[in-house]
């Protein structure tokens, strides 16, 4: 725990112990602090208290959804969006993007993510690169054609790719387990040979797009690109 975050958490606890009045900025800061140190129970308690004691506003709701995203708590993120809708707090693109990010790691993560993406469209919000990165990441449990249609949707909207999206797309297409290291040797000898031709083609086509866009590759993206080139050379 960083010293500043620790001090911030201690300060909030002191405010609580002294029974001092807490306003919206205090609750917002507390949510961010306790989320960063991984104290999910405290985050839930602070949010529950905040909904009773103050009027929820955009920054406070955003802090709670971001905490839910970091925790992979889809239900909590959806509940905040529902609360915002019921109380008339404006829902922005960042709120829904964070809620979609909360879907990562959940079972059939693409299903709630698709619902949230449709909610975004129903609210006449315009998805951005962050939205699509979160959505593509949640599509790791979706059929390949759904992943590719989502990517095609993004391209049709004229949204430019970036380094984070490129890596997330490849991780999704190749179904990378969260805790897998994927060294170059591992990719060449085990991971890529086990992939379907369709997945390999999708990864290659994505990489071609990313190169054409001129983005700088992350280490993992560059490693996957090199591994794909090596196995292609082996097949010649």
TrEMBL record:
The lineage's top-level taxon is Eukaryota
Q: Which GO terms describe its biological process?
A: mitochondrion organization; RNA processing
Supply the InterPro entries for this chain. Mito_RNA_Proc_CCM1, TPR-like_helical_dom_sf
Extract the GO molecular function terms from the UniProt entry.
Answer: mRNA binding
GO cellular component term, pick one: mitochondrion
> Which PANTHER family does the annotation name?
MITOCHONDRIAL GROUP I INTRON SPLICING FACTOR CCM1-RELATED, PENTATRICOPEPTIDE REPEAT-CONTAINING PROTEIN PET309, MITOCHONDRIAL
Q: Under which name does UniProt file this protein?
A: Pentatricopeptide repeat-containing protein, mitochondrial
What species is given as this protein's source? Symbiodinium microadriaticum (Dinoflagellate)
Q: What is the lineage of its organism?
A: Eukaryota, Sar, Alveolata, Dinophyceae, Suessiales
């Amino acid at each position: 725990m960083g010293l500043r975050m620790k001090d911030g958490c201690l300060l909030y606890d002191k405010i609580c112990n002294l029974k001092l009045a807490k306003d919206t900025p205090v609750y917002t800061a507390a949510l961010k602090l306790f989320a960063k140190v991984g104290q999910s129970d405290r985050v839930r308690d602070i949010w529950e208290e905040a909904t009773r004691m103050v009027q929820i506003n955009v920054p406070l709701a955003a802090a709670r959804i971001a905490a839910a995203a970091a925790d992979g708590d889809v239900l909590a993120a959806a509940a905040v969006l529902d609360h915002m809708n019921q109380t008339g707090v404006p829902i922005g693109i960042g709120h829904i993007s964070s809620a979609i990010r909360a879907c990562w790691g959940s079972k059939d993560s693409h299903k709630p993510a698709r619902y949230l993406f449709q909610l975004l469209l129903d609210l006449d919000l315009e998805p951005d690169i962050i939205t699509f990165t979160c959505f593509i990441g949640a599509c790791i449990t979706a059929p390949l054609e759904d992943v590719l249609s989502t990517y095609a949707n993004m391209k049709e909207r004229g949204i430019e790719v970036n380094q984070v999206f490129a890596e997330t797309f490849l991780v999704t297409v190749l179904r990378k387990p969260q805790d897998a290291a994927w060294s170059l040797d591992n990719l060449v000898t085990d991971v890529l040979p086990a992939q379907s031709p369709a997945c390999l083609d999708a990864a290659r086509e994505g990489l071609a797009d990313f190169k054409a866009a001129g983005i700088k590759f992350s280490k993992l993206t560059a490693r996957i690109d090199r591994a794909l080139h090596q196995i292609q050379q082996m097949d010649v």
